Amino acid sequence: MNLRKKCHNELVRLRGNIRVFCRVRPVSQEEQDAANDAKTMLSFDSDDDAVLHLSSKGKVMTFELDKVFPPQATQEEVFQEVQSLVTSCIDGFNVCIFAYGQTGSGKTYTMEGVVDNPGINQRALRLLFSEVTDKAPDWDYKITVSMVEIYNETLRNLLGENPTDKLDIKMNPDGSGQLYVPGLSEFTVQSPEDINRVFELGHMNRATACTNLNEHSSRSHALLIITVCGFNSATGNRTQGKLNLVDLAGSERIGKSGAEGSRLREAQCINKSLSALGDVINALRSKHSHVPFRNSRLTYLLQDSLSGDSKTLMMVQVSPLPSNMSESVCSLKFAQRVRSVELSSSSSSRRQENSSTSSSPTHDSVE
């Protein structure tokens, strides 16, 4: 089993601790009927599935990523590419998978999917159930789930009785250096039925509002946080890993979304947190001694999954419509910046072999 862990981790490491995929959503029939210019401005490389070409203002820009999914790619094909990261959290690693892009580019479809064609969230939990079942009876695992949203830089508990209550991020008093959120609801899940109940409750409590870009646009970042704790009674070994699945709010610029009043404040908070995410990634890329995780709730909450030997995947979602080209260019340029980052391997393993201490690096070492 240790050999399997080692090989699996080496495979993920060779692919890159920060990986960037791009998924281009299809053009709907309604969009084709409504626009004269509905022809796509994006083209794919027949010889290389990691290259995307974009035509804009008479110029062709080429973006190199780790993988590009064309409009016809299925939910299953997308998940096949991310499942090795999902299983890393069973081995005690912290993993972050997030969808980035403008409103209406398909982020929620990729992460949540629909009832008869689920996205990464449901498929990840099902895979975890399958993997931990295979490891029994040698290993005993506990899988807990929390759901939070970050709305106007306020943390909300989507599984609590009162989702409007504000939460805070604090340092764990056990001396482990791990961050935690006091009062955050945690549900232990043991079956797909449990997952469905958790998701239904979370969706009911999530804040949505209208903008010019998408009638039911989500104006908050939604995070599904899955913690996997394992114990081997024969060896005494313990593991603790965390899987963060993040559906980021739309990244469009304020002028484009037509936001006013409270919608304007929402857009400003969204853009501030996405900018903070970019700053964190830039600091990691440049190997700065100080990484500004505290500049937003989003990056502070994800600190232990964006540093050390954690593993990160960004799925940049792109609309192929010419009317969305400026936003697509912004998203793809951000994606290329992310791809150039390498997380430094922590000198100490996050796996808690023969130890019950936390799997996160200390706050001081990260700062």
UniProtKB/TrEMBL annotation:
Looking at the record, the residues that make up the Kinesin motor domain are 17-341
- Cite a GO CC annotation: kinesin complex
GO biological process: one example: microtubule-based movement
Instruction: Please list the residue ranges that the record marks as compositionally biased, kind Low complexity.
Output: 342-360
The cellular location(s) given in this protein's UniProt record come to: Cell junction, Adherens junction; Cytoplasm, Cytoskeleton, Microtubule organizing center, Centrosome; Cytoplasmic vesicle membrane
Q: Which residue stretches belong to region Disordered? A: 342-367
Q: Which Pfam families match?
A: Kinesin
In Gene Ontology terms, what is one molecular function of this protein? microtubule motor activity
The annotated topology with respect to the bilayer is: Peripheral membrane protein
Q: Which residues form a coiled coil?
A: none
Q: What does this protein do?
A: Minus-end microtubule-dependent motor protein. Involved in apically targeted transport. Required for zonula adherens maintenance.
Protein name, entry field: Kinesin-like protein
